[in-house]
Amino acid sequence: MIYQTNLLPPIQKKKLKTAKINKLTLQLAVGVVFLLGILSGIVFILNQKLKTDLQTYQKRITLIQQENKEGLLLEKEISEFRTRDRIIKDLEKERIDWYSILSEVINRKMSSIKITNMAVDENQKFSLTGTANSRGEIVQFKDNLEASSYFEDVNFQSSTLTKPEIPQSKADFSLSFNLEKK
To answer: What's the confidence (pLDDT) of residue 158?
Structure first.
């Protein structure tokens, strides 16, 4: 029979676990910010390209109309480019600022709450799991999220004490919420 003994004091184990969670959260946030930066750069480059193309085609129309009256085809192309430009501008307006959303979640939680997982589906419904010192802290966190202008329909999915027999035990929780429709 083999006995396993953990020689780390519980406080140090907790600190290591907290540091690991914080590091992963930071890495996730940095990764999201990096991806958002790349996507913003791509949209900016495409927008500049479309603007340049639009100006070029407008000049071509003017020259062709002066030389001959066959400019109608190019006007149609310009109209299509304008439509695409409007679509891109509309997409830019509807773009989700993930950095602000993640910052809002982090700013709305108390320091004693540890987020262990956060996911979002294609319908922009978030699910979030974590631990807190008490169920009261979970309720406060839920209320804080509801008070945010970013989120709506904040709901408890579950809440359980990790060791109910110990008065100071942590509470695991799961919440779900949607992005506020603007």
So the answer is: 74
